[in-house]
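Help needed: design a sequence for this.
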């Protein structure tokens, strides 16, 4: 696991140098474009000429970046300070997703019958193969949420011959009960508008985008469980089970 993390980090550093030397540092260009948009927005207020408005529209299109300009804080005040907006976002969603300490689940699980046989358990616990991990990599979206070092699924697919063995060992380590590094278990939080003009963070619907390495691990587990899923999931559960449809319950009603 540490070996994979170090390799990804080194690769990212090398790509940063390549980006700076070959692409004129695209991140600096984005930052400069954002500054031009801010300047043009101020000019469009003081002297809204057609030229300024046209330039503003052009810069906004080139930026292609969602940006929260103003937000209502939990104390009822409104701010356009970016540092305060970032801090407020962390505070709001940290409270929203905070978990409470849960008591022992033994009493809740005891009435549930044991449906997994010794043979099933032996199959589920067998060592992961390289092909299983490769199939999981092929199943994730090539442009989905990246890993902690900003590598997308397309990177792992295209560079499988180089990184496949390292990824296999990392996923196998997790499968055997190893602790998932925080970098791999973290997710990107994407905010979807609930209303056209949001005033507070409660006007956004948060969606967690798990990084691709976490998705690979999840898909490997899902593939293992798929062979016994129909036997361990109640027949009354129709949705989200392959071969069943929620429409069957509607038809029965």
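Sure. Designed sequence:
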């Amino acid at each position: 696991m540490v070996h994979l993390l170090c390799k990804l980090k080194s690769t990212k550093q090398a790509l940063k140098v390549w980006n700076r030397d070959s692409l004129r540092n695209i991140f600096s260009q984005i930052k400069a474009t954002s500054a031009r948009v801010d300047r043009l927005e101020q000019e469009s207020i003081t002297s809204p000429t057609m030229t300024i408005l046209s330039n503003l529209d052009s810069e906004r299109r080139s930026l292609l970046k969602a940006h929260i300009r103003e937000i209502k804080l939990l104390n009822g005040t409104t701010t356009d300070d970016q540092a305060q907006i970032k801090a407020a976002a962390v505070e709001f969603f940290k409270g929203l997703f905070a978990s409470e300490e849960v008591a022992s689940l033994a009493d809740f699980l005891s009435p549930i019958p044991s449906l997994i046989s010794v043979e099933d358990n032996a199959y589920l616990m067998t060592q992961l193969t390289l092909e299983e991990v490769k199939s999981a990599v092929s199943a994730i979206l090539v442009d989905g949420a990246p890993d902690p070092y900003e590598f997308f699924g397309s990177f792992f697919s295209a560079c499988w011959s180089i990184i496949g063995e390292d990824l296999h060992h990392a996923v196998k380590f997790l499968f055997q009960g190893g602790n998932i590094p925080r970098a791999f278990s973290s997710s990107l939080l994407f905010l979807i508008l609930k209303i056209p003009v949001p005033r507070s963070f409660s006007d956004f619907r948060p969606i967690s985008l798990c990084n691709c390495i976490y998705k690979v691990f999840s898909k490997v587990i899902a593939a293992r469980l798929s062979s016994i899923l129909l036997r361990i999931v109640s027949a009354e559960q129709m949705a989200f089970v392959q071969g069943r449809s929620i429409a069957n319950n509607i038809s029965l009603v």
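Residues 114-253 form one domain.
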